[in-house]
TrEMBL record, chain A:
<keyword id="KW-0472">Membrane</keyword>
<dbReference type="InterPro" id="IPR033034">
    <property type="entry name" value="NDUFB9"/>
</dbReference>
<dbReference type="GO" id="GO:0006120">
    <property type="term" value="P:mitochondrial electron transport, NADH to ubiquinone"/>
</dbReference>
<keyword id="KW-0813">Transport</keyword>
<keyword id="KW-0249">Electron transport</keyword>
<comment type="similarity">
    <text>Belongs to the complex I LYR family.</text>
</comment>
<feature type="region of interest" description="Disordered">
    <location>
        <begin position="99"/>
        <end position="121"/>
    </location>
</feature>
<dbReference type="InterPro" id="IPR045292">
    <property type="entry name" value="Complex1_LYR_NDUFB9_LYRM3"/>
</dbReference>
<protein>
    <recommendedName>
        <fullName>NADH dehydrogenase [ubiquinone] 1 beta subcomplex subunit 9</fullName>
    </recommendedName>
</protein>
TrEMBL record, chain B:
<dbReference type="InterPro" id="IPR001516">
    <property type="entry name" value="Proton_antipo_N"/>
</dbReference>
<feature type="transmembrane region" description="Helical">
    <location>
        <begin position="123"/>
        <end position="140"/>
    </location>
</feature>
<dbReference type="GO" id="GO:0042773">
    <property type="term" value="P:ATP synthesis coupled electron transport"/>
</dbReference>
<keyword id="KW-0830">Ubiquinone</keyword>
<feature type="transmembrane region" description="Helical">
    <location>
        <begin position="38"/>
        <end position="63"/>
    </location>
</feature>
<feature type="transmembrane region" description="Helical">
    <location>
        <begin position="332"/>
        <end position="357"/>
    </location>
</feature>
<keyword id="KW-0496">Mitochondrion</keyword>
<dbReference type="Pfam" id="PF06455">
    <property type="entry name" value="NADH5_C"/>
</dbReference>
<keyword id="KW-0679">Respiratory chain</keyword>
Amino acid sequence: MLRARFDENKNEKDMVKATKMLRAGEEEFWANQHPQPYIFPDSPGGTSYERYECYKVPEWVLDYWHPSEKAMYPDYFSKREQWKKLRMQSWDKEVAQLQAETPADGPKTEALPPARKEGDLPPLWWQFVTRPRQHPT
Amino acid sequence: MKLFYACSASTCVVLILLLLLYPVILSFIRSKSPKFEIYYHSVIALGLSFYISMMLLLLSLILPINMTVTILPWTNTDVFDMDISLQFDLYSVMFMPVALYVTWQILEFAYTYMHADPQINRFFKYLLIFMTAMIIFVTANNLLQLFIGWEIMGIMSFLLIGWWHGRADANIAALQAMIYNRVGDIGLIYAMAWFAIIHNSWDIQHIFQLPQNEKINLPLIALIIAATGKSAQFSLHPWLPSAMEGPTPVSALLHSSTMVVAGIFLLVRMNPLMEFNPTILTICLCLGALTTFFSALCALTQNDIKKIVAFSTSSQLGLMMVAIGLNQPDLAFLHICTHAFFKALLFLCSGSFIHSLNGEQDIRKMGGMLYLMPITSSCFTLSILSLMGVPFMTGFFSKDTILEAMSASYVNIWAITLTLMATSFTAVYSLRLIFFVLMGRPRTKPVSTMNEHDPYAIKPLVRLAVASIITGCLLVHYMVPPKMPVITMPPILKLAALIVSLIGFVIALGLAFMANKQLKPKPPSGPHHFSNMLGFFPTIIHRFIPKIILTMAQKIASKMIDQTWLKKTGPKAASNINKPLATTTSNVQRGMIKPYITLFLLTLTIAGILVYFTIF
């Protein structure tokens, strides 16, 4: 197998030979790849990927609703201002935690760290909980 | 009697158009409609329209009158007259109920398929506007009305393919459809301009009265280009498989039954101009044969169920073009009508499978659907049998007749070979679909929501399945072909299509049952790669032509403009012109006596000659 041959020659010291072998390996990989690999529908390149992006609206749009529309959801909008204040209060702490924990040459992964101190929110928590639905209703 | 027919027919069409547009107008009047309000109005409107069109069809069968009815004068000048007029012949009267019935079933199915879509009202509005455009196109008696219907269909196709406009691929596919159709539209516009300039009329009845010896190759080639664009013939075909980005009801309605046949319908309408022109008929025949073979070849190795059906549609459109090339427009029209039923059914069944499997479209991840969804599987099988031309199904009456006509006529062997091979390939990819989707064990994720309890999903399928069985027989029984079809031929020619389909079926069955072991993966062979990459046609055309244009644009923008304004006409040009002058002048005045004396003598000589000629 290609991987086994790669592992056999991985300690090659001659760089010219190594480059030629790598190029030959890449050409063999390109020639032998599947013509139509299976892609899951929701994965990038799949048939349903980003299908519902046009219906995903950010949460700040709710601020632009007409009062008659907001009156249809009184419970939510009565609590919304309090939640905005909580978000503003914890924003600086979230940013400080991110800056402290991010390595100097940039983040290694997209995963966000959890909250470290009691009473703090995890970083970018508000964006996460108010993200749009995956599929529209 | 004629007056009664004219009044009834025009009333029917106007009523149909009003019924179709009523939900659209209602949605504009009301600021906010409840979620499924437009659906309920649409279904009622379509049902009523279908029954009205059936009444018109029955009236036309009882009183076989071909008639044009002028509704309103539109533009009347000294040199050019144009009216809003409708044509009621076999083609328009028969196609309307077919299109309306298919649309009705698809709309009912779309209630289930698009149930979760927040913009479902807009979806139904788009479909109704499309249907209105189709009716305008089919009943048009002049080229402008036809063009209006043609263009609106193109626009709605663009909007509906790009329905999920959050997807980049959907936007690309919508643009692709628009651009390829635009290239075809150039042909239609050229033909319209030609008829307007040479013949001073866009009225179809006047155009048919052109003298026989009139050289009309150019507008006819332009019409073929228009049909090539709209009906996805070879060279302007890549948009059709890409158009599968749209929702399945859109693919079922527009890109299999109604819009894609508009190009063929145009050629069927204009057939009186083409029937004595062997050059044009040969072009149609060769183009159609190439399209049907190439599309069937590409369908063999696809794994997306909708792409397979899209290529199948393209192949059948090629067959319709072959029928036109054989000077049998009525056979092409018959195939348009029968194809609408079984292809819409095929798409709806595919959509039902896809919806049940939570968006899975790859046939490698389907399987065993016969046990999981028996009714849908049965309808799927019926549509496939009809597509293959199994005797006495709907597709048999049109497809087999075209192939018989082809076998019995004096056409080149290349076209016949390609068409028969395409017929055999049809059987192969049809069996491939059945084998991967219906047979074997399920290869899907274990989903528990698969059921067939929803009547809105099942009833349209069953109705279309019934139509896929009986419509062929009914159409052939009641439709009197204007041209005499081929009746007598040797048995081998009569059975050629059936034998070829059977051979393809058996070979495919053998290959399918050989593929039950997992062998060491090998790189794809040349023919497989060629077929899988769609003949490399999109790869070359979509990269080559833009690359040339962009390279030229880059050269113009970065080099030519600077070079022109700086070097050829601007400051450098001034220095380039002045420098030799300055150099020559300063070289002359170097302070040496000889050049000064030479210049003095030269000036003296010129002055003397001038004085001599002045005095004498």
